[in-house]
Amino acid sequence: MIPLSATTTCPDPHGVIRGLRREWGDVAWVELEPGVGAWLVMGYQELLTITRQEKLYSRDARHWRLFQEGVVPPDSGLGPMMFWRPNVIGADGAEHRRLRRPIDDGVAAIDQRRMRRSVEAMCRQLIEDFAERGSADLVGDYAAVVPMLAIAGLFGLDTGQGHELLAALRALFGSAEDSQAGNRRFEEILGGLMRAKKEAPADDLTSHFLAHADLRDEAEVLQSMVVMISAAQETTTTWIAQTFRLMLTDPRFAGRLRGGRLGVDDALDEVLWRDPPMTNMPARYALRDTELGGRRIARGDALILGLSAANDDPRVHGGATEIELGNRAHLAWSAGPHVCPAPVPARLITRTAVETALHLLPDVRLSVNAAELTPHPSPWTRCPASLPVHFRALGDRS
């Protein structure tokens, strides 16, 4: 049994997935942490099945048998990503729809034109800050900062809080020893923000959640903020960073993007197919014994959504070697009732960040060998830990 993190941290994750598919088929047994196993759902149709049939595959982690039996301890590093929370992620049916409405309403209320202008100004300022030195880390100096600043603005966080929140989220998504401490600090920051906005409401998403009729108390408000901010920050950072990684390491991708034969939106779609923001998404829990992809699934088993693996399902591509331009049938945003609520603002932030960098850093080059690039440790995402680059310094440009 291989660890789930082998699909995110190894040099060839697609090779690992294809090896698992040869051995297991479309549903493979993997290790989440020592002694804790789960099913990794790699088939495109199988993934659609578990995301659309919530009466059989629940999002409520209280059904997780290994947790009920004490195999997974309460202080497990898996907790912040997999344990039940009283929020939209942990609910099914009518309860899920009630908790989803404030998020959908908040996303719909975003002024996209104003957001694009704001994000472009942020991107220009960030690039200006490092342009004089002719070098940068396109993750730490840019890809991770742009979403943080954009999300902070939407929720009414100041920049200092945003940077602290970013560090807490990195620990949370790592699912290691510091994940629970990161989660606690994350919620502390948001709790303080919520209390401040309760005293002085403003035109921001925190105030929107506090005033929404479908949220019954401050705990539900806090958890709605937790879901929206954590998902938006991590996924958008990874989407931007993976686009840059391909641009810097894949001559075909870079040539088509820089040469104008591949529009930025088409490039972003290719990234969603090849290296989606969430490689693996936790989780669904079987409500009864069943069968999926030829495997017997026991009641209470955890099923991990292999989003990257499902996109790589050979039945989807029919042997084609390249992604068809304009094809958005990928599962990067999952599917079913729990599909990502905010792909439009995520694309707006990512497209603006990539376009601005392409325009202002036309000669950017990787400063290390591509083989030296490694991802942040996480079984869920495959975000490059850094992308060190160099380019002509601002003062050297004619």
Model description:
The chain has 398 residues and is an alpha+beta fold. The chain has a single domain, classed as Cytochrome p450, CATH 1.10.630. Helices cover 52% and strands 10% of the residues. The chain contains 18 helices and 10 strands. The protein has a 5-stranded mixed beta sheet. The protein has a 3-stranded antiparallel beta sheet with strand order 4-10-9. The protein has a two-stranded antiparallel ribbon with strand order 6-7. α7 packs parallel to α18, α9 crosses α10 and α9 runs antiparallel to α13. The mean pLDDT is 92. This is Cytochrome P450.
CATH topology: Cytochrome p450
* Secondary structure: number of strands: 10
CATH architecture: Orthogonal Bundle
Strand content: 5-15%
Low confidence ranges: none
Spatially, the strands of the biggest sheet line up as 1-2-8-5-3
Write a compact overview of the structure shown.
By secondary structure, the chain is of the alpha+beta class. The chain is 52% helix and 10% strand.
Element layout with pairings:
Elements: H1 6-9, H2 13-24, E1 27-33, E2 36-41, H3 44-52, E3 57-58, H4 65-68, H5 79-82, H6 93-108, H7 112-131, E4 135-137, H8 139-143, H9 145-155, H10 159-174, H11 179-199, H12 205-211, H13 218-249, H14 251-258, H15 264-274, E5 280-286, E6 290-292, E7 295-297, E8 302-306, H16 307-311, H17 314-317, H18 343-360, E9 365-366, E10 388-390
Parallel strand pairs: 2-8
Antiparallel strand pairs: 1-2, 3-5, 4-10, 5-8, 6-7, 9-10
Helix pairs in contact: 7-9, 7-18, 9-10, 9-13, 10-11, 11-13, 12-13, 13-14, 13-15, 13-18
